[in-house]
Write a structure and sequence with these properties.
Elements lengths: L6 H27 L4 H42 L14 H58 L4 H32 L7 E4 H18 L3 E6 L4 E4 L1 H17 L6 E8 L3 E8 L31 H11 L2 E8 L3 E9 L2
Helix pairs in contact: 1-2, 3-4, 4-7, 5-6, 6-7
């Protein structure tokens, strides 16, 4: 039987069997010798035998419990990030066979994790190299386009095409920059340097960044919140995240519409909300807007490249925050970001 392969179980059964044999032999000896009050002595012998068997079982299960506790401790160590944690399996039996399989699974997971890390590093370096390689020709194309624009001031057709070329070059540059940033987040090489920042001042800087565009398009960016609220964050990255949402709101609002940025502090979180009364997001798209390069078939925006909102999500999550969106077609969209107060 497989159960007797384990030395500890075999030893347990042998000890129990010895206790019973000793009890039986002692009982037979008492009967043969005709000892007075034989029944009483036999009863006592059986009671001692039961106590001995219970003691042997208690010792066995206590040992098994310690083995299981050690295994659980090693599992918790691994879950906590110690990739070298392993369960001791230097004995025979089904339990140790299970431990061996768990250790094999851990080794496989470590190998997959290492491969994924290497793949991310490779992706980061590849995109980084491509991005840097693109910067030089992009800069040259911008210069050439600027020269053509100057020379074509009196040629309306050429001027309109050079303006379109400038827009496309800006789109390519934005794509390259966002790809580089997201890849850094994926590879875990993006450094988030947190300092205690005034939320009102940060969001005022975001408003000023888009103030000229809002004026030109006759839209309003309104700020609402307590000016004393502070947040432990990376100022530049958080401003970029909120700025991307504000830009998105401006892209999907019409002349005379409102983009409102609000912030509040609760018991455990600081909340930043960006809402608009624009065109809204189709319900079919709500669960996909944070996916990279996702383009809605209902969107009228032909300039977007689908990296702004995924970058926002990466930045928010790098600050241990959460982001949610609620929208209704023809009514508007609300982005809500919550950051834990540390």
């Amino acid at each position: 039987m497989k159960i007797f392969v384990t030395q500890n179980i075999k030893s347990l059964f042998i000890k129990m069997l010895l206790c019973m044999l000793v009890c039986i032999l002692l009982s037979v000896l008492l009967i043969v010798l005709g000892v007075k009050h034989t029944a009483v002595y036999i009863l006592i012998a059986f009671l001692f035998t039961d106590a001995a068997i219970l003691a042997v079982c208690y010792q066995y299960f206590q040992t098994q419990n310690k083995i299981m506790e050690d295994a659980v401790t090693q599992m918790k160590e691994y879950i906590s990030g110690n990739e070298s944690a392993r369960i001791a399996c230097n004995n025979e039996g089904e339990l140790y066979r299970l431990f061996y399989e768990v250790n094999s699974l851990v080794s496989t997971l470590n190998a997959h994790a290492e491969n994924e890390r290497n793949a991310k590093k490779f992706l980061k370096h590849t995109i980084s190299d491509i991005s840097h390689q693109l910067k030089t020709p992009l800069a040259a194309l911008n210069i050439y386009n600027g020269i053509i624009q100057e020379e074509a001031k009196d040629l309306p057709t050429i001027k309109s095409f050079t303006d379109l070329s400038e827009q496309e070059l800006d789109r390519i540059e934005t794509l390259v920059q966002n790809l580089l940033k997201i890849t850094k987040f994926d590879a875990g090489t993006m450094v988030i340097e947190k300092t205690n920042e005034n939320v009102s001042e940060m969001l005022e800087c975001v408003r000023e960044q888009f103030a000229y565009r809002a004026t030109q398009e006759e839209k309003e960016i309104r700020l609402t919140g307590d000016e004393t609220i502070t947040l432990l964050c990376d100022r530049s990255w958080l401003m970029e995240a909120v700025g991307n949402i504000v830009k998105n709101a401006l892209d999907h609002t019409k002349q005379g519409d409102l983009v409102c940025v609000e912030w509040k502090q609760f018991a455990t979180v600081v909340q930043i909300v960006v809402k608009d009364n624009g065109s809204g997001i189709d319900p079919e798209d709500l669960h996909h807007i944070f996916k990279r390069f996702y383009r809605s078939r209902y969107s009228k925006d032909t300039q977007g490249i689908g990296l702004g909102l995924p970058l926002v999500k990466s930045v928010v999550e790098a600050h241990n925050g959460t982001i949610a969106v609620d929208s209704e077609l023809g009514v508007g969209t609300v982005f809500t970001m919550n950051f834990l107060i540390q």
